[in-house]
Structure formats: structure tokens, C-alpha cells
Design brief:
alpha/beta, 13% strand, globular, 42% helix, five-stranded antiparallel beta sheet
Length: 972
Amino acid sequence: MSATLDKLSSTLAGKLYFDPHNPKHKANLIAYSSDASVYQEEPLAVAIPYHKEDLLQLVAYANKEGITLIPRTAGTSLAGQVVGRGMVVDVSKHFNQIIELNVEEQWVKVQPGVIRDDLNAYLKSYGLMFGPETSTASRAMVGGMIGNNSSGLHSIVWGDTRQNLISAQVILDDGSEVLFEALDPQALFAKLAKNDREGEIYRALNTLVTDDENRRVIQSGYPKKNITRRNTGYALDILAEDMNAFNLCHILAGSEGTLGFITEAKLKLRPLPPKEIGLLCIHFSDMVECMHGNVVALSHRPEASELVDKYILDFTKGHPTYQYNRFFIEGDPQALLMVEFRADTVEEITAKASALKADLIARGLGYAYPWITGAKETALVWDVRKAGLGLIRNLPGDRQPVNLIEDCAIDPSDLPNYVADIQQLLRDEDVHASYYAHAGAGELHIEPFINLKTAEGKQQFRSILEKTTDIVLKYNGSLSGEHGDGRLRGEFIGKVLGERVYALLQQVKAIFDPKGVFNAGKIVDTPPMDTSLRYDQVTDGKTIQTYFDFTKEESILRLAEKCSGSGDCRKTEVTGGTMCPSFMATRDEKDTTRARANMLRQFLTNSTKQNRFDHEEIKEVMDLCLSCKGCKTECPSSVDVAKMKAEFLQHYYDANGAPFRSKLIANFTKSQQLGSLVAPLYNFFAQNPVFSTLIKRIVGFAPQRSLPKVHHTTVRKWYAKQQQIGDFKKKVYLFCDEFTNYNDTAIGITAIKLLNALGYQVIIPEHAESGRTYLSKGFVKEAMKLADRNVRALSPLITEDTPLIGIEPSAILTFRDEYLTLTDKALRDDAQRLAKYSFLIDEFIVQEIAKGNIREEQFTQESKHIKLHGHCYQKAFHLVGFTEKMLSFPTNYKVEVIPSGCCGMAGSFGYEKEHYDVSMKVAELVLLPNLRQTDQETVVAAGGTSCRHQIKDGLGRMSFHPAEILYHALAK
């Protein structure tokens, strides 16, 4: 097949990856071998079609070669829908256009790769929105939402995708293109009369759903009609309901890409919800009690009623991001119900919440009822609920939450008894579980903690699902609510709906796709649910020797395994955030945090090499990682790829040696130290067009870049000549980082003058460079030596009263990040104490303002508008707010934080010739367009040396360190 795939590749406008011997191809094959489920199977090929003609070629190829096409968008499916031994067809990159909007009739036409939240950002100015809202809405795409019939948090009011799908353009198995839409009897008759593939399908389906016996079987076999999330099998019950508006979209939604390939969808829109929003967060001491509370809540007609359990709440404790979202939690609830009300006034929503609270208290349900209002505050609460899937992946050990019985939907009035039955089942199996999500819709995401690396765990995996089907049948519920059947639940559909219904579902597949061109082996005729699991082969991660200490994460393998596949790293600049800049620029799956974690997991588990890191495929996916650390905090599972990349590179160098350019960059401080001795000569060569071009060509830097200059002196030399005279209120130590000392000397001098003027004596102690350049290029062994030297030198000096202050974020924050797992074990306690009292200058000044040690009258009354771009590490450690507060302290200084992620420079990354284009694409996502629209009177603030350089190279505009801006704001 390789020869035919090679030929196919040459005819496609898009990309095709299929060669297992080519590292780039192999990396893509591995990246697409899993989704957010427990399954893993390497595809035959991965296609990234560019336009519809590519799709038609792929359908023709599948017919000819007898393979199946696996449609894929965000790849966040939980039942293995996009995992299989076929050709994965990813339309997320190029099929992302909003085609047409009709505001008056409230509909929009889109391609399948349009992201739900990005679509709603576009629609907001028109006062419209697309309703279905999955917890993955920041990356979930319309095609996948149709495939799963996604519902989401507000489905009890806003409906599911099927209810909001008006029509769809679809490619059939023979390559013909059709439009599925509502047909009145006359239009349906015209379709039945057609002498083509479309006519065949309509005639066969019409015969199937109009047959009296079939209708009786469908009526008796499908779940209760008052269960809104009936998503088991194909929706024959809904298709057969209204023959006066026969619409194959009803059966297309929830079909998981098994019936045809969607190229365009027409979606029903709704007006934006009322502006006032409030959440009554009802605390319960027992899960069954919570389900009784949910029944009461629904009687008050809320917009949503969502469950979060103790496991999820506990994993927000100490989480780099979600620890700040715990403000609404009182005590230690076993379960918490988030009940949303919306209205045009605060009084209306408060009255509704008060009525519900009084009702609950009268019934003795719940123990605390915090009432949260306002869009910003309620969003923080909702973020905890939405992050549930990722947060519970922080569970230590090999017993991990498993998507298994998480999609069963029951009549909400039956939930108390259903939950009690499930709890008993899990007790019998000696298994714990997390319970969360859509209580209002009767669908709880119950995720048992199972060790799938063991034979016993695999047996439990099957046993628990099998026994749960009995409970679902008891309540006439639905086995699948919104996550689909896939290859997980497919083999149990016959048991839940009845074998006669299952036979009808097989007929549906045969009517649409007799050759299995589209996603074969999903919904019907699926492989056994306990085959092709991620952990068919087991490796003890603790046996893998590392330079960083991964004890806290259990091992580097365990850290990689924490990736749930939920795809938070696939959000775009429209949603915002830092993670993941390389994906935002390229829109390639291999450039996601998820792909990097999965690549490491697979090779660290399966490699037969002594050095398990020695694989070109890992290098391929790590290549565009900017080490921004966005994933450390924005990933709910805290999968720190920057740390794992540095670890990988060191092992890779151990096996293959290090490139000259990497060594040169790692030793940047040494070159700047030498350059500073002959600064005029050094700067001449760095700035002269002829010589700088030659240098960049030799080193491999992009010709568009300007080389950094060294200052004619250094901060240390200048400091040595100064006498700090005054009545100082406090003594601080300044970490004189390598970038500030040699390149940004003027900033360092200004920062010292600022601290002096504010009443602080500044001492520059003897210390080594931070090690940032070594870490960025993967020379971890060298960085370890520097970390030990700095901890030994500084820990005796640094206390709460004499803190360590830093100017460059990437340098000072090394003390609070890498040093904690990099230093010698004997120095760990000292490193922890040093980290506790190490601060960015911005942080320190804001803390001193809060203590009353710095006063407003020390600053000017002049007005100034400042735009602030935060360094990635500031964002990762939630420190941008300190800079904003510091710069806003002068009375008439107004600060606007640019909603940018990474600037794209990332140290040396943006200099490197092969990375220049991606670097600039990252900068052009938000930062540079925003600054182009900024007048010259506005001051641009950027704390990072790389950020300032990127702004200068990208726009020719100067930006300033926040310390410089505050210094010039001092009252004269």
C-alpha cells in the first residue's frame, strides 16, 4: 500500500503522512494513534486535506483500496471514535471557515473545523450564539459536535447539536455530494424517486422507518423519551418521529462519522442569554443527597445544574491555576451542585436563587449555599467544572480515572436511586470513582479509578461496564448521552436497545456505507471494548533515570501519562491564554502539548533502546516547543512539557552529541562576558550589515533578526562604583542576571536607582548565572551545577526580611521552578526556602505597597496610558497582575493588559533560521496586531528581554521594562 499512498500524496493539495520509516511521518502517525479515550491504535495514514477536492480523492482511494476513513477534528472523543487502523482525515486545519451568516433568520453556515467558542466570539457582536456548549468548547469543532451530538452544560435550555442542526452538506460513500435537510412529504417523494446513490439511501431508510414492526421495535427498544440525551446507536427513534419533516440530519448527528463526510453545516442560532448571571453553589455532605437536591433545583427551572465532586475540588488545592478558583467553597463538601440562573436584572436572578435556597433548606438538603454573581466570578466557578476531566488526572498512582460509564443518561428523577446502585456496584468491585457534570440533564460523568496496566484492571474495565448496562436497563436509560458509543460501548448496544434494534442499526450502516468507507468499527460491529488499549505494554517509570527529580510526579513517564487527551492545548488565540503557541501558529496536531506528552509516553513505555529518549520522532514533536511553560499551569493535569523537553534534549545529546549552535546559545553568557571587554568592537561586528549577515549565516540565525548588543559597562561594574547613601528602610539582594548584566545594563541600573529612591538598599551578592540559556537548549547537567552554586551562595543571605529580587522573569523564576527539582538533594530544603523569598521586582514593589511602605505621593500626578505584555513565565506563575498593579499605582497611570500569549521569540527560538516563520506567526496572533493599532503616545511595557526584542524586530518599536516606567514616574 505504500506505493499507492505515495502516489496519492503527490495528487493531494494537502498533506499525507504514511511512511513509518520517516521520522516526521512516524511522529504524525503516533500523534494520531490516540484521542481522549483509553484506546491507542496507529493509523495506516494521516491526511490533512486542503479542500473538498482532496476529500473526494480520499473517498475514491478508500473505495479502491478497501480502507476506512476516520474523520477527525479536535480529537477529544472519549469512546475511541477517532482511533483505528484506517486513514485518519483531520479537517481541523483547513476546513475552518464561517461561510455565511443570516442574522435575521438566525442561522450560520460553517465548515466542520470551526471551533464552537471561536464561532460564538464571531457571533457575539450580532447578539447571537450557537447553543450546545461542551466543556471542551474552546477547541471542540462543529464536525465533532455533530458526530457526537454534543450537548454540554446548558443543554436543558439550549439543546443538543441535533436540535440545532438545520442542514448539512455530506459526501457519500461513492463520492457524490448531497444536502441533508428537512423534507416535507412532497420533497421526500422527489428524493425517493431519484435514480442515484442519494435516492437509494432515502428509499432504503424510508422503508426501514415506515415498517410497522420496525416502528414497534424502535418504540419499545429506545430509552424513555423524557431523557433528552438519548444517544445510543443511530437516532432512529427521532428520525421516525416526524415523517412530515423527514431530515437525515437527525440520524447524521451522533453518527460519529460512520455514514458520510460532512463538508458544511447550517446551524440554528439563538439570541445571547440575558446579561445577568448567578450561580447558587449548593454544598452537600453526600452524593445521593446531592441528587435529591438536583431534582428540587430542576423544579425551579434553572439554566443549568452541574455536579462537581470532592475529588475534583481537592485537585484544585495547590493547582497552579485552579487554586485561585476556590473562593466559593465552604468546608469540605462531598458533592457540590452549581445551579445557574439568568435574567435581565440582578433582582430577578437573586429572587430565583433565594426561592431555591429556601426550598432546599425546608427539605433539609445541603449545608451551604454561596451565591456567586457577575460574569467574571461565575466564569471562575464554571472553569472548575469544565476542568474536571483534566483535574482528576492528577490522581497519583496507576489507578486512574477511566472513561467507561461516564456517559449514561437517566431520567433526573431516577438519579438518586441510580447513583446509589452505581455506588454499590463500585463497592462490590472495590473501586472508587469521581462523579461530575450534567446532573440537570440526568447524565453524570462517573469515572471509576482502574489500573488498566494490570490484568485485574482490564477485567474490571469490562465487568463494570457490563454490570452498569443492567442498571441502565433497570431505569430505561441511555448507555450514551453525549460522548457516543465509539468502540467503547458499541458491543453493548444490542443488550441495552435489544438485538432487533441493533440489527436495524447494522442495516442503517449498510444502507449508507456497505463497504465501510467511513469509520468502520464504530457504533456497530465494533472490536471488543477491552482491546487496543493504551497500556497493553507496561513499563515502570521509576526505572527511567532522569536528571530532573520527578519524584513529585512519580516519574517522567507518569507525568507524560497525566495527559488525558482532553485537548486544552488546542485552543486558539481567540480563546486566549499562552498554551500552546506553536499549535496556535501551525494548527498541526504534532505541535500540541498533547502530542508531545503522548510521544514521550509511547517511547518511554515501548522503546527497546537503552536510552529510551534516543528517538528522532520525539525530537520532531519537541522541535517547535517554545518552552513557554503555559502547559505547566493552563493544562488541568499540569503536564509540564518544557521540563520534559529539557530532560529529553539532555538524554538525546548523551546519545548523539549536541549541535554547535545549541552549545553556542547555551554559552551565551560567556560570549557576552568576552564581548563586554571589547564592547565597541563586538557591537560593530554585531550591527554592521556585512559582518552581522555573515555571523548569522554561519551560526544559523535568521537574516531578518538583529543581533543583541553588549553595553559599554556591566551592572556589576557600575554598582561597584556607587555609594548608596540614605536612610534605607530595608535591605534587598538583587539577582544580577546574565541578560541584565551584559545586554540590558541600563535597565538594571534604573531598577537599582528605583529601589534606592523608594528607600531600599540594594546589594548585589556573588552568584553564578541563572542557567536559563543551558536549560532552554537542554544542557541540564550544566544547569544543575549552576543551580547548586547559586543555592549555596544565596541561601545563607536570603530571608523574609532580606529577599532576592530579580529583573528578568526567565532568570529569577528559575529559583521558583527548575531549581526545586534540579539541585542536589542535600540542597533541596535550602532551594525551597530560597524560592519562597525570591521575587520579581514587580511583585516585591506591590507587596511593599500593600504594607504601606511605598506611597502614592512618591509618584507623579501626570497621566500616562500603558499597554502591558506579560512574559510567558509571568503568566505561568500568575504574576502579570502584580505588574499591572505596580504600573497602575501612580494616580493617573492607566494600564491595559494586552490579551497576548507568547511573544514568539522565546529566547533563541525566534533567532533560529528554521524557526523564524513560526516565531513571527506567534507574534502576529495577538501581540503585534494589537501594537500596530496603538498610538505612539502609549507606552509599551514588556518585562522580558526576548519580548522587547521581538517587538523591536517585528515593529521597530521600543518597549520598556516596567521598572523603567515606574522609575520615570517618580515625583521630581
